[in-house]
Write a structure and sequence with these properties.
It is a single chain. It is built from 5 helices and 49 strands. By secondary structure, it is mostly beta strands.
């Protein structure tokens, strides 16, 4: 944010510099902007990702940061810089070389097309800047060498040192600054919220016997104060962009845009989630884009297609049923036959603080193909009926099977199911009735005392997959891994069926002898810990000239992964559907243009330790993590905006989408998803070291909505998994 006492000075530029946007010959309205993202590993031999964006209309009201979806890898030890507006990217290696590359992505080529390698050792430099022709190499003590590139447009010229060891108060300020950048014949830098500028003057020819002549950095002027930013860059003259960081991964990496002379905010939230070293290939001038043309990268996208009308067609609804079913298999997928299955109601006494006995609804036995089924009685017990009514008529169930392999390794089968006995409940549900899914038995490695230690520790939580997902400003694309550790990252080849060095995935499993005796065994559970966590339940997208809304009203309609641990690591298996009446209306409305964010609601989660006890002895122990209900923390938000997902929007994403899923809106039209279910949001919540996904049902109370603006161009929308308006779209994006 800019302070109320903001001061600004006109952009001071040397004579002879290309004009600004007022120049009728200027055609630059979109500037390549590169982000060298943080290293994904501490390994010195690792790589960093160079990610290309385009800053569209940097000083116009229609400014945006387009994700081109072009990336390349560079050594983590290299320094990368660009500038001058010619698409030339420099890499100063740790081995004493300088490499130049040409960015050919605008014509469908490579982001890093090798051009030339120079024998120049800039590996110890604190800062390296260029405006294309001049290259400034600044050491940490403020000493500056200046080089001249004879072919700035191609990057294959001669790089000649024209000044050696210059040191002034300005160069000292550049070395100590938070960030430094060049724009034409000026150097700008950010220090403690102040942006200063020093113009570059050429020294008269012949001074110091240098040809071409050296330079002088003139007395600084102040461009702005009170700039809340960690980095800054100039996409062109009379424009300034900044990036701020925070401890909240949902808001960090926020980019703001200003126009200068005097400094005026253009957009205080261009987008967020942009982290790394940011640099612009700033050109000599800027003009405003055509306000009637949607932002694009490369060539104008194909503008043919069909207008979005109302593609929603009647679909055959699922039927209610009192029968639930499933299948248990060995680790290798072969049937696990002859195993007793206990069906319980986990929502009964879910708020108990001490030890309770799991409420058994019924039992079954796996058939030769591993399948089982159970039909609920017409009249449920009062406690089970209460749990069902409290969840909007949806009864969450657990199916549990225990056994022993031929070599004596205990195995656990744990499945989650939902029972829906009336049509209204089926219509309001996220996933519908149980769908005969298959679940693998997993090793249950308890010791002789029936103990299974809880391995979670706060000291090691930061090393888990869940913590890395939660701390990443970018939303993950896809689902969470099925197996996770709550204290470290599991190796890529992790095999849960290796027990004492032996793979037991193919060993036949027999039931425990005690389990055959009716009424001799109970499942006892005790809550270990609980916590309220904000969980992703949806998102909405608005690209150019549009407004987005996401509504989550009156009741819950979300299905969230559950996790089970029986061998030291966690296995995601099945989901639990929350459909309680909550008397809330949360979400966001009419955000945009160029806006796309996830939305989160507070949900209470519980970790439970369960033990299967027969004749007073513990035969099996496992932990589960499961959601309980919507619950806002005292003094906390009823819901909040999550991570930025605008990388799914725009022309680059549109070109990669399936044509069959595309339609467009005419000015003022509305697109709304209010049927079916959303995509599964990976990393929707992280709880005690485990990352779990979630999805939400669309209905009259839960919807994604977009309203096109009044500009004359077409506003394109497309579904991720189907055409917008059909139940299979999942979520829709915007250009």
């Amino acid at each position: 944010m800019l302070t109320a006492g903001l001061t600004a000075a006109p952009q001071a530029l040397t004579s002879g510099q290309s004009a600004s946007a007022a120049d009728a010959t200027c055609t630059t309205f979109s500037v390549p902007t590169y982000v060298l993202e943080p290293a994904a590993t501490s390994n010195i031999a690792g790589k960093r990702v160079l990610h290309k964006y385009m800053e569209w209309g940097p000083k116009s009201a229609d400014t945006d940061l387009l994700d081109t979806q072009y990336t390349a890898n560079l050594p983590a030890t290299s320094k990368v810089f660009t500038g001058g507006g010619n698409g030339i990217i420099y890499e100063a290696t740790s081995g004493g070389q300088v490499k130049t590359y040409k960015d050919n992505t605008a014509t469908g080529g490579s982001l890093l097309t090798a051009v030339k390698t120079y024998s120049l050792n800039w590996s110890s430099a604190k800062r390296i800047l260029t405006n294309g022709t001049r290259i400034l190499v600044i050491d940490s003590d403020g000493t500056m060498d200046v080089y001249n590139q004879s072919a700035p447009a191609t990057g294959d010229g001669t790089i000649t040192k024209i000044m050696d060891g210059a040191k002034t108060t300005v160069t000292g300020s550049l070395a100590a600054a938070d960030d430094v950048w060049m724009i034409n014949s000026a150097v700008q830098w950010l220090t403690d919220g102040k942006v200063q500028q020093s113009t570059i003057s050429n020294l008269p020819p012949g001074i110091g016997n240098i040809t071409p002549p050296g330079i002088r950095l003139e007395t600084p002027t102040t461009v702005a104060t009170g700039v809340d930013a960690a980095q800054g860059w100039a996409p062109g003259p009379n424009a300034l962009s900044t990036q701020s960081v925070s401890s909240d991964p949902d808001t960090t990496g926020q980019v703001r845009a200003y126009t200068t002379g005097p400094l005026t905010s253009v957009d205080d939230d261009v987008r967020s989630g942009i982290v790394g070293d940011i640099m612009a290939d700033a050109g000599p001038c800027l003009t405003d884009p055509d306000p009637e043309v949607a932002p694009y990268f490369g060539d104008l996208p194909d503008d043919s297609g069909d207008v979005l009308t109302d593609p929603q067609t009647p679909e055959t609804p699922a039927s209610p049923s009192r029968t639930v079913s499933g299948k248990f298999t060995l680790g290798n997928g072969e049937p696990a036959q002859g195993l007793p299955v206990t069906i319980t109601a986990p929502d009964v006494d879910i708020d108990a603080t001490g030890e309770t006995k799991e409420t058994v609804v019924g039992t079954a036995t796996t058939a030769a193909d591993g399948s089982w089924s159970y039909t609920l009685p017409q009249t449920l017990s009062s406690d089970v009926q209460k749990a069902k009514d409290g969840n909007g008529g949806i009864l969450n169930l657990s199916a549990i099977a225990v056994g022993t392999t031929s070599s004596g390794v205990k195995m656990l089968g744990f499945d989650r199911l939902t029972a829906m006995t009336d049509q209204a409940t089926v219509d309001a549900s996220v996933d519908g009735p149980d769908d005969d899914h298959s679940v693998k038995l997993i090793p249950n490695t308890v010791d002789n005392s029936g103990s299974l230690p809880d391995s979670f520790a706060a000291a090691t939580e930061s090393q888990t997959y869940a913590a890395k997902v939660e701390d990443n400003p970018a939303a993950i694309d896809g689902e969470d891994p099925q197996w996770q550790s709550d204290n470290s990252l599991l190796p890529a080849g992790y095999n849960p069926y290796l027990v004492s060095g032996k793979d037991v995935s193919a060993e036949p499993v027999s039931p425990l002898v005690e389990a055959k005796a009716s009424g001799s065994c109970d499942t006892i559970r005790v809550p270990v810990s609980s916590k309220i966590k904000y969980t992703v339940v949806g998102e909405a997208h608005a690209g150019w000239d549009a407004k987005a809304s996401f509504e989550y009203e009156s009741s819950m309609s979300s299905s969230i992964d559950t996790a089970v641990k029986s061998n030291g690591n966690w296995n995601l298996g099945g989901s639990k559907e929350l459909s309680q009446n909550v008397s809330i209306s949360v979400g966001y409305a009419n955000r945009g243009p160029h806006y796309a964010k996830q939305y989160k609601v507070p949900i209470e989660y519980v970790k439970i330790k369960s033990q299967y006890i027969c004749f007073g002895g513990v035969r099996s122990t496992w932990y589960t993590i499961e959601p309980k209900r919507y619950k806002a923390p005292t003094g906390g938000a009823l819901g909040k905006v999550g991570k930025d997902v605008s990388s799914k929007d725009g022309s680059a994403a549109f070109k990669r989408s399936k044509k069959a899923y595309r339609n467009y809106l005419n000015p003022g039209d509305v697109a709304q998803q209010s049927r079916g279910k959303s995509v599964k949001f990976g990393g929707a919540v992280s709880f005690y070291g485990v990352s779990m996904g979630a999805k939400t049902g669309y209905d009259s109370n839960h919807k994604q909505r977009l309203v096109a603006g009044t500009k004359s161009g077409k506003h394109w929308v497309w579904g991720r998994n189907g055409q917008v308006g059909t139940s299979g779209a999942g979520v829709f994006y915007s250009k």
